[in-house]
Design goal:
Number of strands: 0
Shape: rod-shaped
Strand content: under 5%
Structural class: mainly alpha
Oligomer: single chain
Length: 57
């Protein structure tokens, strides 16, 4: 059994388009910045605790 949507197809298409624009313009760039920034922060903290990378002195 398929459930019928109570919204007309035009409204559903508009809603899906707005969701796509939100994902592409806001969510994905914010996630990318957060992931790269978080990784950089982790590396920075580890270098403060363990020292910089390189051969042992």
């Amino acid at each position: 059994m398929e459930m019928q949507s109570s919204t007309p197809p035009e409204a559903q298409k508009s809603r899906e388009t707005r969701l796509l624009v939100f994902l592409l313009v806001f969510l994905f760039p914010m996630l990318a910045v957060a992931i790269v920034g978080g990784y950089g922060f982790i590396v920075w903290i580890l270098q403060m605790l363990l020292g910089p990378p390189g051969p042992p002195a």
